[in-house]
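Worked example

This section walks through a single chain of length 590. The input is the sequence exactly as stored; nothing has been trimmed or padded.
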Amino acid sequence: MSKIEVMDINLSNKIAAGEVIEKTMNVVKELVENSIDAEATSIKVELTDSGVKEIIITDDGTGMDKEDAVKAFSRHATSKLKSVDDLFNIDSLGFRGEALPSIASVSNLTLKTSNGEVGTVVEMSGGEMLSVSSCDLNRGTKITVRDLFFNTPVRLKYLKNLYVELANITEYVNKMALSYPNIKFVLTNNGKVLLNTEGKGNLLKVINNIYGVEVTKKMIKIGCSNDDYTVSGFISYPEVTKPNRNSLITFVNGRYIKNNELNKAIIESYHTYVPIDKYPIVVLSIEVDPILIDINVHPTKMDIKFSKMDTLKELINDTISRKLESLTLIPEVISNNKQEEFIEKRELLKPIIENYSINEEKDEYEKNNYNIIEETTLDFEELEKKSEKEIDYNIPRIKKIYPVGIALSTYIICENEDGIYIIDQHAAAERINYEKYFNAMKNHTNNIMDLLIPIKVELPTDEYILLKRNINIMTDMGFNIEEFGINTFVIRSHPAWLPNYAIEEAIRKIINIVIENESFDYGKFIEKVSITLACKMSIKANDYVSMDDIEILIDNLRNTKNPFTCPHGRPTIISYSKYELEKLFKRAIN
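Given that input, the structure is written out below as tokens.
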């Protein structure tokens, strides 16, 4: 007797739901993507209790006739693929035909749709079709999902608390609004508006809706292309950072994706501009021929494979790096706390409490579910023009400034006609020395200096073996180094760029870095050497610096490639504009 049987359709749909629908955000994602594919110009997402109780998605798309409305609940029923060849030329967000039957199998669902000629209502419960009837409805579709996971209580039990579910949905809808600024998005929860965009195609306005005024003022427009890819969007000034990679937002042909290689290219573009473990806000849209990408590689379609990935990473890196090199990146001290208040309010959406059940959390959640929409007036056209302004690369990126004194034995006070500047003497010296050492090692010359007294370096046996294995690294850098007895090396000459006042200390630090690097990459090696030497060999806080030395320090800083941050990403200089100073002293009134 045969043991293998074909699954019941309801059972197979529930299994599919386990892969596609894990949380309330997945329901919103699948239905919103269907609305976008239906050419909607307006999409409204209404939630009750973060979508656990009810989700309503309303759009003004093409809608469906009665036959398609019924057929849409059949597994693998889709209007987006007709043949195998179409799988290699996908230009829609959805294509598998799994989402709608999967959602219907774990909820009570009502579909109302009209193609402009006839309206249809389909009622579903737990995957079973209860009724199909006609109705009056404007062109578009409205889907109501109630009691999610009512028939799969284990799945319901493992939903996160209401904060987490709402935060996930908000994050997703925000990203889709950024990807499609020409579509009006409205997101509400328990009747309170969380997002409301115009849908007029202005990406900077959408950024303002999501991140607020102060972030919007610090966003810079970019655009570039090569034979295969076109990249456009906005990047933030390095002073605007977030604690995680969620702020690195990339779209490919309108699809939001998470790709580690693209994120790495963006992060490398900001190298030494931002501290470690801090990330800029970046919104990039990538347009590419669908034949050059493979979308069908991940169950959630959140990652794709690229042909010619190296050319795309190079394009992104070069474009962002060049744009950053064209900007004046001195953080300005602002005398108000509006941004902090707005950030505090937005933090209410974050998953602070992870260990409570939905019912236990509900009362507290409802009490604190604030409206976070911020009204403001900004000249968006002027902001975009400012970001597109041409820069003369032949002049220093910091205007001429004049030192007037030192505060707290660490901070150099300067001025010019625009205001007051404060320079961290250690961070500034670090940046100068970092670029000096890095350029010297990168553009290696035969400028060698002999030591009057050779330096002997005795090492433990294991470190001696590692250094001996990589001895060519030292010789390639310009060191004359040779074995000298048991576990000992002797250095007789060194490259001329080493600091004369601490030659032995610098050599020992370089040897330590050579020993520590098991897999060797020369680019990363000279980067690490440069940062280490710059940090250890620069003047420190509380070190005495004469006014003559300060003037030399400032001139050298102005002539560096990036005078705004030390190699660790900390700012070297901040400013108080003349206007801000006058506000503080009540000479200027808002």
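What to look for: The chain has 20 helices and 24 strands.
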